[in-house]
Amino acid sequence: MRSLTLIFAFLFVITTAGWMTAQSPDGSRRPLDLPSGGAGDGDEEEDAPETINFWGGEYEGDAFFWCLDKSCSMGWNGEIEDLKQEFTQTLNSLSSQAEFGVVAFSEGHVVWNPMPQRANPANKGSATAWVLNLQAAGWTCLGPAAVETLNIANQCSKAMKQVLVLSDGEPYCNGTNTATQVLTDVAAANWQQIPVNTIYIASDTGGISFMQQLAAQNNGTFYQPQ
Questions:
Q1: Cα angle vertex 97, ends 94, 103, to 5°?
Q2: Host domain of residue 149
Q3: What is the CATH number for 198?
Q4: Tens digit of pLDDT for each residue in 29-69?
Q5: Which DSSP state fits 136?
Q6: 209 part of a folded domain
Q7: Closest alpha carbon to 163 in 184, 139, 145, 140
Q8: Confidence at residue 196, expressed as pLDDT on a 0 to 100 scale
């Protein structure tokens, strides 16, 4: 009788162990009370970078911050209208996972939103309408606008941020060439070393050297559409 009791006890243990074991998707077996693997509830998959095309140049990132020239020379040959079209097309290409910001400059600068924003339909529509209302007038006071753009970008937690500075000339503010001051101020504001990419849309060569320097000292690229 004692032997039969031991046999039944042994069979009970074997049956219980089999019941508590599950079949995993790859065919291996694991106890049900162990973690199933993979990301937990608190883990989020890192956002994949996106590639945008702005005025013919390609930029990869997960957050994009524009600093746009609206000085008087942007109205001489319709550049301001081209800018509105290019910005609208590029912004609409972003997924809702990306973030962005927009600053425009002339004698002073104006800001669409002082914080980085998701590229959802509502924000895209708001920023597009804001850019479409820009008018070309005034000097090219780039420095404060570029610093403001970086201040917005610095608040963004995305891993692959890009700043895009578009202009059609050197920075002249109230009749004074401020190129040296702009380079100094931008370097000081860019403590996160965010790439600052420059797009020079004029056909002349007057602003090329400055725009190349601005990009080079901030790990960015220089581009001049042909």
A1: 60
A2: 50-223
A3: 3.40.50.410
A4: 333 333 333 333 333 445 689 999 999 999 999 999 999 99
A5: -
A6: yes
A7: 145
A8: 98
